[in-house]
UniProtKB/TrEMBL annotation:
It is found in: Membrane. The lineage of its organism: Archaea, Methanobacteriati, Methanobacteriota, environmental samples. The keyword Transmembrane applies. It holds the Pfam family TatA_B_E. It comes from uncultured marine group II/III euryarchaeote KM3_33_F08. One of its GO terms (biological process) is protein transport. InterPro entries: TatA/B/E. Gene3D superfamilies: 1.20.5.3310. Keywords: Membrane, Protein transport, Translocation, Transmembrane, Transmembrane helix, Transport. This is Twin-arginine translocase TatA/TatE family subunit. The keyword Phosphoprotein does not apply. It is a single-pass membrane protein. One of its GO terms (cellular component) is membrane.
């Protein structure tokens, strides 16, 4: 829930009271840069995860490994993904 206009004015007045008017532009600039870096990080991570998902054909990593193991003749029933990967590497 966003604060109302009156609440925002009170917060701004307290900010000016505690930090002074000369610090306001510096802190606003820092907050803007931090938000920009955060958004860039979100964009980068979502692109990487989307590319990885497309490479697996939309399946989870476990489903992709299970399919490869079954096609290679490796028994996957009752084994963890790590155990199946280890068996695939042995072959």
């Amino acid at each position: 829930m966003m604060p109302s206009t009156g609440e925002m004015l009170i917060i701004l007045a307290l900010f000016v009271l505690f930090f002074g008017i000369d610090k306001l532009p510096k802190i606003a600039r820092s907050l803007g840069m931090a938000k920009g870096e955060f958004q860039q990080g979100l964009t980068d991570s979502s692109v990487k995860s989307a590319e990885a998902d497309l490479e697996r054909g939309g399946r989870t990593e476990a489903a992709a490994i299970t399919e490869v193991a079954e096609s290679a003749g490796v028994e996957v029933e009752g084994k963890s993904v790590a155990e199946v990967e280890a068996e695939l590497e042995e072959e």
